Amino acid sequence: MTRPLLIAAGAALLAVLIAAAASEGQRRAALIGASSASLTAFGSLLAMGRFATGKKPVQAALAVMVVAFLVRIVVVALGTLAVVRAGESVVAFVVAFFVPYFFFAAVEAWYVASLGRGPGSPA
Question: Is residue 11 part of a domain?
Answer without folding.
Answer: yes
